[in-house]
Amino acid sequence: MTALRRGVAGTAIDAVMRLDAATRVSCLDRAGALGPLIALGRYGIKRHVLMPGFAALWLLGRERNRPKLEAAGRLGLVSVVGTALAIDAVKLAMGRERPDAGAGPDSWRRGVRSRSFPSGHAGTVFAAATVAAIMAEDVALGGTAYATAMLLAWSRMLCDRHWLSDVVAGAALGTAVTLGARAALPELDPPAGGEAGGVGRAVPVP
Asked: Is the residue at 11 inside a domain?
């Protein structure tokens, strides 16, 4: 990070580091009612949970001839895998230490074992929220998906595992990867009309 901290870029990076320090949150000693949220954010949105979940959704939709369900599973699996690969590559390159490691927000060392930037949990939950928003095709449902993702991503700060910029970067990366997957693989788009055999099924134009 030292080489980057020059001129306008350096000023922006310093501002982000100050914001990270100012917004550091830890409720470990007073979790109380936030305990379930912290636990869900830690275990429920891991890639190891979401990947098999989307794979199961894909197979279920295929088995029951539900094209929209199948498309959601396929898009979700591609997005979460892509997000995981992208985040791991950035983590390896940046080497930022986690807040609970005792270092400050400007501790960036390649090869450190505990890599904080960006947040993998935030990336996967925002990838899943973007899939939900795409498939739902409804503003209210999409907004609910993103609000839930924001809450769960914030929980990673509550347990002192990530800085704010880690969470924001992870969320942006998960969203971007999912939108990119949809654009690059149009067959993963939600099918037009309703499910197979449904009332709203689209009629092909000759």
From this structure: no
- Which structure tokens are listed for 190? 């939600």
- For residue 40, is it within any domain? no
Name the residue range of residue 150's domain: 48-188
Decide if 201 is inside a domain.
no
Contact 194, 200 (CB under 8 A): yes
Question: Is the pTM higher than 0.85?
Answer: no
Tens digit of pLDDT for each residue in 99-110? Answer: 888 778 888 876
- Domains held by the chain: number: 1
Query: Which one-letter DSSP state was computed for residue 137?
Result: -
Q: pLDDT at residue 20 above 50?
A: yes
Sorted by sequence, the CB contacts under 8 Å of residue 53 that are 6+ apart come out as 76
* 95 domain-assigned: yes
Task: Please state the rounded mean pLDDT for residues 22-46.
Answer: 78
Can you tell me whether residue 168 is helix, strand or coil? helix
